[in-house]
Design brief:
This protein has twelve helices and twelve strands. It is an alpha/beta fold. It folds into two domains: 138 residues, ATPase, nucleotide binding domain (Nucleotidyltransferase, domain 5, 2-Layer Sandwich); 173 residues, ATPase, nucleotide binding domain (Nucleotidyltransferase, domain 5).
Length: 366
């Protein structure tokens, strides 16, 4: 597979909000042409079933099957909107849903049946992107940095791409290449993203997100509680490093009211990102924010107060911030079948660049 081909990337993130699917035409290296993308939100019932298997408990096989069939239907919807057929698509990059991530124990678990998705869609599927990295001693996350670097090839560097999903992560991109010809990167999870804010909003308002940051903007940050939340050795630990969505003890917030709790958790996410700056090899010229968190004006406002360089959304540089991670898994699927690295020592902490992913052939495809 040497020429550019159409692929579909699919992401169901730690925010548990739905499926992002995006078309991308590329070669897994320098050629990138983005296409249409869609987001299919989860209904409250399925979101609750997903929450019920986090940690690997409950009826995982049933939820995995339902998750996979929902992805198959999303593929059909995306193809219909784009006017394409399954035969036009070379690969699906299928991330699945992370239900357990404990790289310090050598474990990461993304549910999603690649063989079933290939059979349902008639398209070859690459899945299980993280296991090889963890088996090689890496953190298994984040995996998007090589795609960030490809997208940012023509932008002035150093810069940082900040993705705010359920967990927040950064990709610092420096100028030039390393001694092996790879992009100069440093990537790691900074701390909480949307997940604590979303969980708080659901508990106190019945809504799955703090829409437009309204709850947080109505409250005040409890500085003592914030200090307790930030008193965690993770923030001082050297990267690369990664987190599970429920890695932090949020009990200090429990005694706060709905608005003050939302304001404090929002400040916690932003302060965690700001602490990441101390790990960068050089100060960034700009921050580019992607993921669902960029839709939260309260969170963006605090980030702009705390960070030392301009903060822009992905759209300001011509990217689709909602589709970025889905696009990345299309890019990584192409790299996987070409046996190119998906991660580097400076992105996940393993000893040498490592590929990964498992290929499931669609029935009848040569």
């Amino acid at each position: 597979m040497t020429n550019a081909v159409w692929c579909i990337g699919m992401m169901s993130g730690t925010s548990l909000d739905g499926i992002d699917a995006a078309l991308l035409r590329g070669d897994g290296e320098e050629r990138i042409e983005t296409g249409p993308a869609i987001t299919v939100p989860y209904d409250d019932g399925f979101r609750a079933r997903l929450r019920g298997v986090l940690g690997g408990v409950g009826d995982v096989p049933a939820v995995e099957r339902e998750l996979t069939l929902r992805h198959a239907e999303t593929v059909r919807r995306l193809l219909g909107q784009a006017g394409l057929r399954a035969a036009d698509i070379a690969l699906i990059g299928f991330h699945g849903q992370t239900i357990l991530h404990a790289p310090d124990k050598g474990r990461t678990w993304q549910i999603g049946d690649g063989a079933l998705l290939a059979a349902e869609t008639g398209i070859d599927v690459v899945c299980d992107f993280r296991s090889a990295d963890v088996a090689a001693g890496g953190q298994g996350a984040p995996l998007v940095p090589l795609y960030h670097a490809a997208l940012a090839a023509r932008l002035e560097r150093p810069l940082v791409v900040l993705n705010i999903g359920g967990v927040a992560n950064v990709t610092w991109i420096g100028a030039g290449q390393d001694a092996d010809g790879n992009p100069r990167l440093l990537a790691f999870d900074t701390g909480p993203g949307n997940a604590p804010i979303d969980d708080w909003a659901l508990r106190h308002t019945g809504k799955a997100v703090d829409r437009d940051g309204a709850l947080a903007r109505a409250g005040r940050v409890d500085r003592q509680v914030l200090a307790r939340l930030l008193d965690n050795p993770y923030f001082a630990a050297r990267p690369p490093k990664s987190l599970d969505r429920d890695a932090f003890d949020l009990s200090p917030v429990a005694g706060l009211g709905a608005t003050d709790g939302a304001a404090t958790l929002t400040a916690f996410t932003a302060a965690s990102v700001a602490r990441a700056e101390g790990h960068f090899p050089a100060p960034p010229r700009r921050w580019i924010v992607a993921g669902g968190g960029r839709h939260n004006p309260a969170l963006l406002a605090v980030l702009r107060e705390l960070l030392s360089a301009p903060v822009e959304t992905a759209e300001a540089v011509g990217w689709d911030g909602d589709a970025l991670e889905a696009q990345a898994f299309a890019h990584l699927a192409l790299r996987s079948v070409k046996r190119l690295p998906l991660s580097l020592p400076t992105t996940t902490g393993l000893r040498q660049p490592t590929t990964g992913g498992r290929l499931h052939r669609a029935p009848g495809r040569s």
